[in-house]
Design a protein that fits this description.
776 residues, 4-stranded mixed beta sheet, E3A/B/C-like
Amino acid sequence: MSEAGRVPSPAAPPEVAAAAPDDRKGKEPEREKLPPIVSAGAGATAGLDRGSKGQISTFSSFISTVNQKKEAAENRSSPTHLVFPNIKNVRDLPPICLDVRQKQRISTEASSSEMKAPVLPEPVLPNQPKTIKDFQEDTEKAKSSGDWKAVHDFYLTTFDSFPELNAAFKKDATTSFNTIEDSGINAKFVNAVYDALLNTPQDIQKTVLKGIINSLLREWKGPRTKDDLRAYFILLQNPQFNNTSTYVIYAHLLRQIATLVEADHHFLVHWFKKLSQKRFKQLVERLLQFISLRLFPAKPEEFPPITKCSWWIPSASKVLSLLNTANSLVHPPLIPYTDFYNSTLDHIDLMEEYHTWQSFGNSHRFSFCQYPFVISIAAKKIIIQRDSEQQMISIARQSLVDKVSRRQRPDMNMLFLNMKVRRTHLVSDSLDELTRKRADLKKKLKVTFVGEAGLDMGGLTKEWFLLLIRQIFHPDYGMFTYHKDSHCHWFSSFKCDNYSEFRLVGILMGLAVYNSITLDIRFPPCCYKKLLSPPIIPSDQNTPVGICSVTTDDLCQIMPELAHGLSELLSYEGNVEEDFYSTFQVFQEEFGIIKSYNLKPGGDKIPVTNQNRKEYVQLYVDFLLNKSIYKQFAAFYYGFHSVCASNALMLLRPEEVEILVCGSPELDMHALQRSTQYDGYAKTDLTIRYFWDVVLGFPLDLQKKLLHFTTGSDRVPVGGMADLNFKISKNETSTNWLPVAHTCFNQLCLPPYKSKKDLKQKLIIGISNSEGFGLE
């Protein structure tokens, strides 16, 4: 598998991992170094095996229930609700033989389009002459006449076995379809059959489930054929599995898919990505619901005891990981990565999951941390905060013990990272303090401005961050370049003797995450991808850090015009060498001097041609985003990780790190209204009613300006608007005055304006011209 189990894409989600044989049982797992996150096959498989032993009983009671048909009138009265009594007595299906798994694991992204797995001869399929038109005509006739025999016979035959499924839905029964590019399945026919299924009488729906049971009960003696994979692919889309009464069957289907060899998973992943957005989303939602209801069942008696089906959740999580990887291979993704979040997990003991993962990694103990894409950013923030708090307490306790052991008087200040800085020397003093107190970075932060009385209850800390960030990112300071087209900052490539100030910025970002402060920083997404490359500081100091795979898409987020020009070069139909007359060289201006850099050895003598232009563009982008700023970014990387050195970072996507640092761009002003506190006003006062009428009617850009005016950032903390602790105070001044903001306390001071028009006019003037004032 690739490092940290990630596929090479801008989103960089966790990779699919093969379910490996659980040959580690009885051995103490290595604890010195955590394995990659989602080499979770071993953990998932072990979870499956764990639940399958010592619980084999007859399946006859369940099948006999499915076989019983009710009277026709009763069957048609509730076509979508299936009842399976005694579901707790269902035995497990026989586990798939693990000895057929390939010993050599093949990573998904490295596999060729023609997977070199054993290609077994496809069996001769039964004859299935039905077409989608025939099926739809039979269904319409059945609805009008009430005679469902033809439809019943179709479902009975089609779902009787894997070969019958292939006979019905394969586009061409005579073609093998052994490539990842084409599953060979008639998707429209599958959709039509499933869309009609829930509106058929119950005896037909039970017939389908009985056929699925019979197929899953087969003893498998060897590797799967591609027809078997097609059958799994088709069955997984069955909408009947939305119903909790089918969950026992669904769970066994998921386990068989989860324990396939990785070569088979590779095919499924590439077939999944060809699904429509609607069908793909349905699969994800069905699996998330399955996990949620197994964790918190509405009717516990509806499922077998958790001790007898401990493999349910690992199986579903593994299949979800296949869908997550498929989603990451499509650009743009079929669904947002947030659609994989399972908010139910916010209500479980996340730290127990985290500690299980830390202790056992991806071995024989299942943890949701093996599949971090299902953990919401809010839940990850809780894990990071708790982990940070534990580290803070540990560091503070050690300081106290050291003090007592030396018979020195304990001082409460030793429990904090105390920063004493002068406003006139803010950057240099901050750098000196952080350098001297490097051992205290994981303590709670407290800031004091020299010569000013004041107790830091959070306001001074936030002001320190605001002032320091504003000064460091000012264009005149020269550390970062602001790109107007993309509205973001990027690292200056100017060479210097000391990169300690870049380390300071990294420490600031780390302290912000550590102390739950939202920063008003505008880095492109590429920055956070580099920040997680790798997510844990390597033990070998010679290992490069902050280097990641970059494309013109990444460059477009910083320098859109240049990225567009390079894309035009790639698509140019003329003679590149003669028309562009370029070489493998880059020219940059540094302090008024033009300097040239070769993109490869002897690059100044290598012309860019139609044949090598892709290499030129890739080297150009890599130079701009990696090599030319390596020392700057490496200092920044080490600064950030000196504070946030935690295995919890391995759970995060680059986009999630950005949200932790800068907050979310999604604004919900109604949520802000509900959570706002008042001082001198009541929420029913006329001025307050005017205020919310005006603000809720603002366009998004003005709402962002209001948030920036009052909090110092136009983004929202991970916990939502409620975490802002927004307050509106009454300003007993003339109504001719503009509103005033105390950004350090997220407080808006509002004069008692007499009319909505006057309030709107003054508020717009205040929030639109706040640069240079309003910071208290």
